[in-house]
Automatic annotation (TrEMBL):
Assigned protein family: Belongs to the HAD-like hydrolase superfamily.
Protein's organism: Halorussus aquaticus
A Pfam family hit: HAD_2
Official protein name in the record: HAD family hydrolase
Enzyme class: hydrolase
Length: 221
């Protein structure tokens, strides 16, 4: 079994519970309202909630003659604010098995497709700053959509920060597994309750139930 220098983690669904769809939906509606669209088509609200592509964003903004950069800044700002409120209100929490990482002496990093500001908040809220040596979320800019997973951009930046190319990437989606492949990394797919029925078209190096399983992989036990 490989001896990894570092372990990188996706955030939502791996370290913390995923955001509620209703939270993201209301945040998207608020973003439309913030740029003067009070009656956005519900299909367009769904389009910008999650998994947005540059092409989809362009089409949605064209439907309302919106500036893409201004709308995307509003979308990310409202999404990040709504997610912070989830944590503060106790509606969303970390996973208990994050405690397993205390048994490892690897360098740790976070690479998320969520907003960088949201990741910063989570690190502070759970007092995780000493645990993670580097972390990346998306910048609040349209260009960040092209850089998110499955593109390896942020993974490669995290590896550069840690000074290694020997790392395991732990995620809960196909885009995580594919991003690891593109970056030349092994991957561990965490099959939690929300990903129980997910079928992958790309094969992860490992499939695990939780972060305790990741510890076993990292220690060779």
């Amino acid at each position: 079994m490989p001896d990894y220098d570092a372990i990188l983690f996706d955030n939502d669904g791996v370290l913390v519970e995923p955001p509620a769809r209703d939270t993201l939906r209301e945040a998207a509606r608020s973003a439309f309202s913030a740029v003067g669209v009070g009656d956005a088509n519900e299909a367009h609200v769904e389009d910008v909630m999650h998994g947005v592509t540059p092409e989809l964003l362009r089409d949605v903004c064209a439907a309302y003659d919106l500036d893409e950069s201004a709308f995307w800044e509003a979308r990310d700002r409202h999404a990040s604010r709504a997610q912070r409120e989830e944590f503060r209100d106790g509606e969303r929490d970390r996973y208990d098995d994050v405690a397993a990482l205390a048994d490892l002496d690897h360098d740790f990093g976070i690479v998320s497709s969520n907003q960088h500001a949201t990741i910063e908040f989570i690190l502070s809220f759970f007092e995780w700053e000493p645990l993670f040596d580097t972390y990346y979320g998306r910048e609040r800019a349209v260009e960040s959509i092209r850089r998110k997973k499955p593109e390896p951009h942020y993974l490669e930046r995290a590896l550069a920060d840690l000074g290694t190319d020997s790392a395991l990437f732990v995620g809960d989606s196909e885009s995580d597994v594919e991003a690891a492949r593109r970056a030349g990394l092994d991957s561990a797919f965490v099959r939690r309750d929300h990903s129980e029925g997910v079928e992958l078209s790309v094969e992860p190096t490992y499939e695990v139930r939780d972060l305790w399983d990741v510890v076993e992989i990292a220690t060779g036990e």
